[in-house]
Amino acid sequence: MSSNDNHESQLAIYRPWLRLLAGLEIHSRYQGKFSASDVVQQTMLEAWRHWDDFRGDEEGRRAWLRQILAFQLAKLGRAYGETRKRDIRRERSIEASMAESSLRLADILPSDQTSPTDRAIANEQHLRLCAALERLPADYRHVIMLRNMQELSYEQISQQMDRSVGAVKMLWVRALQALKHAMA
User: Which of 44, 61, 88, 116 is most buried when burial is the number of CB atoms within 10 A of its CB?
Assistant: First the structure.
């Protein structure tokens, strides 16, 4: 296996996680302008180009990938109407928002990370969770993201999803069951 193939396979495990983070930012800031897949593709390309330059542990790599994703989101945001010159504060704002979303996503899983082995296991579970979320139907994924990651109330979710509060609660319960099954 060549070095390039190895980079691709290592990067591929981050794709679902990056797509979830991008989806949250696009939904709240850039909905209808570009897709999460567009941003993730650009992020993966940039990360692949600089893969050998990265020095750090797994947690650092995820932070590095979030920064690249934030840069790509800001760049596309400028290209689609927000024509302000590069503003590093905007990119940090996007990065902070994604870091918060990533932490909320990690909160879905039980965690006891004290040793490096525990942190490595938690990281792998985190990436498995993202992959499982990506396999869920769009409505399930959306309700989990709104409820668990954006911490919206059932009433707020019902308005966003144009459903009754009762329907949202049932959808959320079914979505969590499907996620549990997907993780098994």
Answer: 44
Distance CA 47, CA 61 (A): 10
Question: Quick count: other Cβ atoms within 10 Å of Cβ 118?
Answer: 12
Q: Which residues of 158-183 are buried (b: 16+ CB within 10 A; e: fewer)?
A: beeeebeeeebbebbeebbebbeebe
**Stretch 85-106: mean pLDDT:** 54
- In contact, 168 and 160? CB cutoff 8 Å: no
Cα distances from 99 to residues 8, 36, 172, in angstroms, run 23, 16, 24
DSSP letter at 55 equals -
Asked if 19 contacts 134 with a C-beta cutoff of 8 angstroms, the reply is yes
Mind listing the pLDDT tens digit for each residue in 115-166? 667 767 777 777 888 888 888 998 998 898 888 877 889 999 999 889 999 9
CA atoms within 13 A on the CB side of 177: 6
Q: Which of 110, 80, 103 is CA-nearest to residue 180?
A: 110
Burial class for 64, CB neighbours closer than 10 Å (0-12, 13-18, 19+): middle
β strands within the chain, DSSP E: none
